[in-house]
Write a structure and sequence with these properties.
flat, repeat, TPR_rpt, Rhodanese domain-containing protein
C-alpha cells in the first residue's frame, strides 16, 4: 500500500511539475504545486512549497490562499513572526471570512500579549463581512475576558449563527447574560450548551447558581448534583449544592415543614463537609458549613409522637433533653466551622458576628445552672472584634446591643448604630424592646412607632404594639391583628404564644392562623408548659378534644419538670377536666375533679365541670350536692363569675329536677341575683316552657340588665321562640305570631343577622302562600359564607335561601328572553342562590348541609328547565356521592326522592322504583312518605302497570298529608288514569282539611284546587263545568291573572260552540281583568282579546290588540295564529282599514300572512281554507 501511494504521489508531482514548466506564469498551477509540497513531510519540501507560494502571490496578489500558507510557513517553519503577521493580515484583507488566517493571526498576537491589536483585527474583519463568524467568536471571547458583557452578547449572538453547535459559544453567552442579570436568557443559553455537551460542568454549575438567584432552589440542587456526578471533586459544585440545599431548607421551614427542612439540612451538611475535606484552606466552604449547622440547630423540631410522654414525666424530660443535645451539638459544630473560617480569613469581620451568634445559641441550649459567666461574655467580645475591623458597620452595633448582657452597653450600641444610620428600623425596634424592659413605656412606644414607620415588614414593632395594648388602648381584635402580623413575619415561639393568648381574649382560638403558629412554637419551645397549654386550648376550640387532652397532659408533665407552679397546675387540670367533659369522657372528668377536691383547690369552674360530668354519668344526687356547694359559694364570687354560676345552677336544676322544681327555686332566689344578662337569658329560656307564666315578673325585671346590641337582639330571639311555643296549637307552632314580633323588632334593629336569619327561617316554615318568597329578602346573599356569623341552633343564610327557592312551586324558563312568569313574587334566579351554594360547598367541601342544599337547588333548576340531560347527569353524581355518606333520616329520604325523580325523567323506571322503595324504608312521617308513594304512582303509570298504580294510589289516600302540592299531583294522576271512579272526592276533602290551619292564604289554595278541577273538566270536554270552576277560582283569588285568562278562554270556546254573545262578553271581561292584573305580558292573552273584539265587530280594537300581541313575542317565537289573524285583519282592503296608524309590518300582502301561518302550522285546516278563499 505504501509503495503504491508513493508511486501515485510521484505521478502527481510529475504532472504538477510539467504544468508549471509548461505554464510558469499561471498562479493557480504554482499554488497547486506549492500546496502539494506543503502537505509532504520534511522541512525541505515546505521550503520549496514556500517558493511556489511566493511566485503564486507575485503572479496573483489577490489570492488570499497563497498569503495564508506563507503566513503558516513564516510562523511555523522559518519562525519569522513579523512576516507571518504581514502575510496573515494580507490574507484577511483579501478574505475577511478566512477563519484559518484570522485565528492564526490572533494566536500570534495573543502570544505577544497584544490583546488590543487582536480586538482590532477581529473588529475590522467583522466590520468588513457579517459572515466573518470566526471574528465574532474571537471577539466575543475577548469581550467576555474583558468583562464587557453587553458587547460580548452581541458578538456571541452573531458568532452562534455561524457555529450553532458550538457549546463554548453558548456557554460564554450564558455567562454574559448571567452577568447582565438576564437570568432567563442565561438559563436557556446554559441549557443549550448542556444539550450539545452534557459534560459541561461549568454550565451545570452556573445554571445552578442562576436558578438559586431566581428562587428555584430545587432545580439548582438537581443541576449541582448532576455536575458532581461528572466531576466529584469540583469545589464550586460542592459549594453551590450546599447553598442550594440550605436555601431549600429555609423554604421548607417557612412553610412549617421543620422535619423536612432538618432532613434537607442534614444532606447539606454532608455536602459542605465533603467540600471542606476537598478544600481545607477555603474559608467560604467552612463558613457555609457553619451556616448550615447553625440553621439546623435553630430549626430542628421536637416531636411528641410517643404517647408515654403524656403521663411519664421522666420520659418527657428525656425527650426534651435529647432534643436540646441535638441542637447543642449542631451549634457547637457551627462554632468550630466558623472558627476555622476565621483562622483562614481573619480580616472578615462578619465571621466574628457569626461566631458571637453561635455562642449565644450554644448558651441558650445549656441548662441554667451549667451556664458559665465567662462563656456568656464571649459573644460581646467577638462582636467587638468585628467592630475593630469595621467600626462603622451599623449592623454590628445592633448585634452587639442584642447579645450584650449589660443594659448600658446595649443602649450605647443601639444609639451608636442610629448615629451611623438614623433610618435603621432594627435599631429602633430593639431600642424600644430595651426601653420596655426598663419600664420606659412612653420611650418604648415612640421607638416602636418609629421602627414601624421606617420598615413595616419588621416583626418586633408589631409585637411590641400588641404587647402594649393596655397603654395604647387597643381592642383585643386589634392587638391580635398586630401580633398575627409579627408572627407571620418572624415565627418566633414568643410571638406565636402571644398570638394564642390574644386569640383567647378575642375569641379567635379556632382559626387555622392560630393553630399553625402555636403548633410551630411547640416544635422549638417544648420546655415551656404554657406552649402545651395554649395548644390544648386551640385544639379544644377547634373541637379536636383528643388532641387537646394530649396537650394538656403534656403541659402538666412539663410544669412538673420545670417549676411545679401550683396556680398554673390548677389551670391546666381544670382545662383537662373541661376537655374530658366535652369529649364525652365524663368518668375521667369526674376523676380529675375529685383529685382537685382532695387537694382543696376545686374552684367554681371545677365545680361546674364536676356537676355536669356527674349528671352525665347518671349520678344525679352527686351532681345535686355539687350544685349546692356551688350555690353556697355564689355570694363570694365576682359579679361575672356569680352570674355564670347562677345560670349554670338553673340549668342543672332543670336537667336534674325538672321545670317545676327550677321554677320554684328561681322564685325563692333574691331578685338581685338576676341582674345579669347571662342569668336573664337562662330564666327567659325556662319561662318559654312555662305555660303558667310564673316567671313573668322575674323575667321582666332581669331584662333591665341587657345593655349591648347583641344581648338585646338575643333576648328578642328568645321572645320570638316564646311566641311560637305559647301560641301553638295541637299540631303546629304559632309561626305567624313569631313573624309578627320579628317584623316589629327589625324596624328597630334592621342589621341584626340573628333576627333576620330567624325571620327567614320562620317564613320558610310557614304555610302561608307568600311567606316563602318573602324569606329571600331577609339576607344579603352575595356575601361570602365565611363572613356570615355562626349562630348555634340556627340554619345559615345560604341554607334558608336555598330552602326558600326549593319551596317555590312556580316554574319558568331559565332563558328570560322566552320566560313568561306568572308569579309576582318569584325571584329565585335574581338572588343567585345556586352560585352562593356552589361557593359555600367549594369553601367547605366537608359540609354535608352545603352539599345537600346544593343538590336540592340543582333539582329545582332541573325541574324549571324540564330536566336537561347535563343537569340529570350531574344530579346523579352528586346524589350518589351524598348517599354513600351517612346522613340524617329526613335528608337521606329527600336525596333518595331526588335520585328517584332523576331516574324517572331519564326513563330509568327500575332505578326510579328502587330508590323510591328504599326511601319508604326510612322512618319519617306519613306526610313525607306520601311523596315516595306518589313517585311510585308515576313510575307504575309510565310502566302501564295499572294494578300497582292503583295499589300505590290507595296508599296515598290512606296517608295523612298536609301538603297541597302533593294532593294536586295526586288529583292529576287520578284524573288521567281514571282512578276517581270508586273514590269520589276524597282528594278534594283532604285538600280542604289541610287548608283549615292557614289563616291568610287559604283562598289562594282553594282557587288553585278549582283551577285544577277546571283543567280536568276541559280535558274531559266538559266546558260548562270548567267555566263554572274557573269562575269560582276567580272569585276566590282576585289577583291571579292566569285564572282570569283561563276563564276568558273557556268562555270564548263556549261562545263559539253555542253562538252565545253572553259568553263572549263574559270572556272579554275576564281577559281584560287578566290583562290588568298580570305582572308581565302573558302569551296569547292579547290575541284572545283581539279575537273577542273582532267577534264583537270592533275592528280598531282588534288591530290594537294584535299589535300588542305581536310585540309581546320574540320574532323567532311568534305562533302561527298571530299570522293568521293578521291575514284576516288585512283581508278586506277597504278604505277604513288603510289607516295611517298601521305599522310597517302590517303592510304585507295578506297572502304572505296566510302562507307564513301555514308554514308554521301546516296541520291546521282553517289556514288551508283561508288560502283557498284567497285564490
Amino acid at each position: 500500500m505504501g509503495e503504491e501511494k508513493d508511486s501515485q504521489n510521484d505521478t502527481v508531482f510529475k504532472q504538477l511539475s510539467e504544468a508549471v514548466a509548461n505554464n510558469p506564469d499561471d498562479p493557480s498551477v504554482q499554488f497547486n504545486l506549492g500546496l502539494f509540497l506543503w502537505n509532504r513531510s520534511g522541512i525541505e519540501s515546505k521550503q520549496k512549497a514556500a517558493e511556489h507560494f511566493v511566485i503564486a502571490a507575485k503572479l496573483n496578489p489577490q489570492d488570499a490562499n497563497a498569503f495564508r500558507y506563507l503566513g503558516h510557513y513564516y510562523s511555523k517553519v522559518s519562525i519569522d513572526t513579523q512576516r507571518a503577521l504581514k502575510c496573515y493580515q494580507r490574507a484577511l484583507a483579501l478574505s475577511p471570512q478566512d477563519s484559518e488566517s484570522g485565528e492564526s493571526l490572533c494566536d500570534l498576537l495573543d502570544k505577544e500579549g497584544k490583546e488590543s491589536l487582536e480586538v482590532a483585527v477581529c473588529r475590522e474583519a467583522s466590520g468588513k463581512s457579517p459572515r466573518a463568524f470566526w471574528a465574532f467568536r474571537r471577539l466575543g471571547f475577548l469581550q467576555v475576558h474583558q468583562k464587557k458583557w453587553s458587547e460580548a452578547v452581541q458578538s456571541l449572538q452573531q458568532a452562534i449563527r455561524g457555529y450553532p453547535t458550538s457549546a463554548d459559544l453558548w456557554e460564554a453567552l450564558g455567562l454574559a447574560y448571567q452577568r447582565l442579570s438576564m437570568f432567563t436568557a442565561a438559563i436557556k443559553s446554559y441549557g443549550r450548551a448542556i444539550e450539545l455537551e452534557d459534560s459541561r460542568v461549568f454550565s451545570l454549575v452556573e445554571s445552578g447558581y442562576v436558578f438559586m438567584m431566581i428562587g428555584s432552589h430545587r432545580k439548582g440542587v438537581e443541576l449541582f448534583q448532576q455536575a458532581l456526578q461528572i466531576s466529584p471533586e469540583n469545589l464550586a459544585a460542592h459549594f453551590g449544592l450546599g447553598c442550594a440545599l440550605l436555601e431549600l431548607s429555609k423554604e421548607c421551614i417557612s412553610l412549617g415543614a421543620f422535619r423536612w427542612g432538618a432532613s434537607v439540612l442534614e444532606e447539606a451538611s454532608k455536602v459542605a463537609k465533603a467540600g471542606t475535606n476537598l478544600g481545607k484552606d477555603i474559608s467560604c466552604m467552612w463558613k457555609l458549613h457553619g451556616d448550615i449547622q447553625l440553621t439546623y440547630a435553630k430549626c430542628f423540631p421536637w416531636m411528641d409522637e410517643n404517647p408515654a410522654l403524656q403521663t411519664d414525666k421522666n420520659a418527657l424530660s428525656a425527650s426534651i433533653k435529647s432534643w436540646k443535645n441535638t441542637c447543642f451539638s449542631a451549634a457547637l459544630s457551627a462554632k468550630h466551622s466558623y472558627q476555622q473560617s476565621l483562622h483562614l480569613t481573619p480580616w472578615q469581620a462578619n465571621i466574628y458576628t457569626d461566631i458571637a451568634i453561635t455562642i449565644d445559641a450554644i448558651n441558650s441550649f445549656k441548662e441554667a445552672e451549667k451556664r458559665d459567666l465567662i462563656q456568656g461574655e464571649l459573644p460581646e467580645k467577638m462582636i467587638i472584634g468585628g467592630l475593630l475591623l469595621e467600626s462603622c458597620n451599623n449592623e454590628f452595633w445592633v448585634a452587639l446591643g442584642c447579645l450584650s448582657h449589660h443594659v448600658e452597653l446595649k443602649q450605647h450600641a443601639f444609639i451608636r448604630s442610629l448615629q451611623l444610620d438614623v433610618s435603621l428600623a432594627a435599631a429602633w425596634a430593639y431600642l424600644g424592646q430595651l426601653y420596655r424592659k426598663q419600664g420606659e413605656k412612653t420611650l418604648a412606644q415612640q421607638a416602636f412607632d418609629r421602627a414601624r414607620s421606617i420598615d413595616p415588614s419588621l416583626a418586633l414593632p408589631w409585637a411590641g404594639m400588641s404587647a402594649d395594648m393596655s397603654i395604647r388602648a387597643l381592642k383585643p381584635d386589634e392587638a391580635y391583628d398586630c401580633c398575627l402580623r409579627a408572627a407571620q413575619i418572624l415565627p418566633l415561639p414568643e410571638f406565636q404564644m402571644g398570638l394564642a393568648k390574644l386569640a383567647l381574649l378575642s375569641g379567635q382560638l379556632s382559626l387555622s392562623e392560630v393553630f399553625g403558629p402555636i403548633r410551630q412554637a411547640l416544635y422549638h419551645a417544648p420546655q415551656y408548659p404554657e406552649a402545651h397549654n395554649l395548644l390544648g386550648l386551640v385544639c379544644e376550640a377547634r373541637c379536636d378534644y383528643l388532641s387537646a387532652i394530649a396537650s394538656f397532659r403534656l403541659a402538666r408533665c412539663a410544669i412538673n419538670i420545670s417549676s411545679s407552679d401550683a396556680e398554673k397546675l390548677l389551670d391546666i387540670s381544670i382545662n383537662l377536666a373541661r376537655t374530658f367533659c366535652k369529649a364525652d369522657k365524663a368518668k375521667e372528668a369526674v376523676q380529675e375533679c375529685e383529685e382537685l377536691k382532695k387537694k382543696g383547690v376545686l374552684d367554681w369552674e371545677g365545680l361546674h365541670i364536676y356537676a355536669l360530668s356527674s349528671w352525665t354519668l347518671g349520678k344525679k344526687d352527686q351532681a345535686l350536692s355539687v350544685v349546692r356547694i356551688l350555690a353556697a359559694r355564689v355570694k363570694s364570687l365576682e359579679p361575672n363569675l356569680a352570674s355564670a354560676s347562677i345560670s349554670f345552677i338553673c340549668r342543672m336544676l332543670y336537667y336534674i329536677s325538672g321545670r317545676e322544681s327550677v321554677t320554684t327555686s328561681i322564685l325563692k332566689m333574691p331578685r338581685s341575683l338576676f341582674e345579669s344578662s347571662k342569668v336573664s337569658f337562662v330564666v327567659s329560656a325556662i319561662h318559654i316552657l312555662d305555660q303558667s307564666n310564673q316567671l313573668e315578673a322575674v323575667v321582666s325585671s332581669s331584662r333591665s340588665s341587657l345593655l349591648s346590641h347583641d344581648e338585646i337582639t338575643g333576648m328578642h330571639f328568645l321572645i320570638t321562640l316564646s311566641k311560637l311555643v305559647k301560641h301553638s296549637s295541637k299540631d303546629c307552632l304559632g309561626i305567624q305570631n313569631g313573624v309578627y314580633h320579628l317584623r316589629k323588632v327589625l324596624h328597630k334593629y334592621p342589621n341584626s343577622y340573628l333576627l333576620r336569619n330567624l325571620l327567614g327561617y320562620l317564613l320558610v316554615s310557614s304555610n302561608e302562600h307568600k311567606d316563602t318568597h318573602l324569606s329571600t329578602r331577609c339576607f344579603t346573599v352575595r356575601c361570602s359564607t365565611a363572613l356570615c356569623p355562626k349562630e348555634e341552633g340556627l340554619k345559615s343564610s345560604p341554607e334558608i335561601l336555598g330552602a326558600s327557592v326549593v319551596a317555590c312551586y312556580t316554574t319558568g324558563s331559565s332563558n328570560h328572553k322566552y320566560s313568561f312568569p306568572t308569579c309576582e313574587d318569584q325571584s329565585p334566579h335574581q338572588h343567585g342562590s345556586l352560585k352562593l351554594l356552589q361557593k359555600w360547598y367549594h369553601q367547605e367541601p366537608w359540609n354535608k348541609n352545603a352539599r345537600y342544599m346544593l343538590i336540592l337547588n340543582y333539582m329545582q333548576k332541573a325541574r324549571e328547565e324540564r330536566y336537561p340531560q347535563h343537569l340529570c347527569i350531574g344530579l346523579e353524581r352528586l346524589t350518589g356521592l351524598a348517599l354513600s355518606d351517612e346522613s340524617r333520616p329526613y335528608e337521606r329520604f329527600q336525596l333518595l326522592l331526588c335520585a328517584s325523580e332523576t331516574n324517572l325523567q331519564r326513563g330509568n323506571l327500575i332505578g326510579c322504583i328502587n330508590h323510591a322503595n328504599n326511601a319508604l324504608k326510612i322512618s319519617v312521617s306519613d306526610g313525607y312518605l306520601f311523596f315516595a308513594h306518589l313517585l311510585l304512582c308515576r313510575a307504575y303509570a309510565a310502566e302501564h302497570n295499572r294494578p300497582r298504580l292503583l295499589e300505590e294510589y290507595t296508599r296515598c289516600l290512606n296517608l295523612k298529608v298536609d301538603y297541597h302540592i302533593g294532593l294536586i299531583c295526586l288529583k292529576y294522576i287520578e284524573s288521567w288514569y281514571g282512578l276517581d271512579e270508586t273514590n269520589g272526592n276524597i282528594v278534594e276533602l283532604k285538600f280542604e282539611e289541610c287548608s283549615k290551619d292557614i289563616k291568610y292564604s287559604w283562598n289562594v289554595w282553594m282557587a288553585l284546587l278549582k283551577l285544577v278541577q277546571g283543567l280536568i273538566a276541559v280535558s274531559n270536554r266538559d266546558f260548562v263545568a270548567a267555566e263554572d270552576l274557573f269562575a269560582q277560582a276567580c272569585s276566590l283569588n282576585h289577583n291571579e291573572s292566569c285564572l282570569y285568562m283561563c276563564h276568558g278562554a273557556i268562555c270564548m270556546e263556549l261562545a263559539r260552540q253555542q253562538c252565545n254573545s253572553d259568553y263572549l262578553m263574559l270572556g272579554t271581561g275576564s281577559l281584560k281583568k287578566a290583562r290588568d292584573t298580570c305582572v308581565a305580558p302573558l302569551p296569547i292573552l292579547q290575541l284572545l282579546l283581539a279575537q273577542a273584539e273582532a267577534s264583537l265587530g270592533y275592528k280598531d280594537q282588534w288591530e290594537r290588540y294584535l299589535q300588542l300581541e305581536w310585540s309581546t313575542w320574540p320574532p323567532e317565537m311568534r305562533p302561527s295564529e298571530i299570522f293568521f289573524q293578521m291575514h284576516l285583519l288585512l283581508g278586506p282592503l277597504d278604505d277604513g282599514m288603510q289607516s295611517s296608524s298601521r305599522t310597517k309590518h302590517h303592510q304585507k300582502n295578506p297572502l304572505r300572512w296566510i302562507l307564513q301561518a301555514i308554514h308554521l302550522n301546516p296541520s291546521c285546516s282553517r289556514y288551508w281554507k283561508a288560502l283557498q278563499h284567497c285564490n
